[in-house]
Each structure stands twice: as C-alpha cells, then as structure tokens.
Design brief:
Blueprint (H helix, E strand, L loop, with lengths): L8 E3 H13 L3 H15 L3 E3 L3 H16 L7 H11 L3 E4 L2 H11 L2 E4 L1
Parallel strand pairs: 1-2, 3-4
Helix pairs in contact: 1-2, 3-4, 4-5
Length: 112
Amino acid sequence: MEGRGDVLATTVFNIWEALLGAHSVRNPDHGQKLLDLYAKVLARLVLLPMTLDDASKAAELGGKLRRRGRDVVADALTAAIALRAGCDGIVTRNVSHFSDLAALTGLTVVKY
C-alpha cells in the first residue's frame, strides 16, 4: 500500500488496543519486542484522534448493527474516525465486524 502512495493511518483507539495487547503478554521479553515493533510501525503512520462526533457516530453505527443482531463492539469507533478523516477503507484481520460496518458506511475492507 505504501508503494502505491496510499496514506496509511491509525486511530488513537487502535494504538491503545495494540499497546494493551503488548503490555498483557506474560513474557516480558516478548512484550518488549512487540512494543519495539509497534514503535517502528507507528512512526510511519498518520495518527487520527478521536472526537466527540466520532463517539456519537460510532454509537449510531453500533446501535444500528446491534438492532440487527450484530455486535461490532468498539470497532465502530475505528469506522467512525475513518469516515470523519475521509479514509477510503480499513485494513484489518477482523473482516466480519468491518464488513458489517462497510455495508453501512461505504468504507472498503482490506484483509491482512
């Protein structure tokens, strides 16, 4: 994606998710390796903050899907932030949650 000139970004919320995982690893050496890796990756990304409007939009999206029996939990925050920032899509391993959100938002979903 970088080779095509795409701008790669992440959200403050997604950084929290990644760092929580790294700090939760029982082996301190492995946890530190993850933190070092994340630091290198994050240095190459644009950081998208979260706003009150994002929280409101995420609640709207999540509520619509929850009424349909689909719970995308906090992934709605990522989608809302991406929408506000003008992103075209989301790169994720969690295709099922983001496919539901893509149907509501028009965001594309790319699996990695």
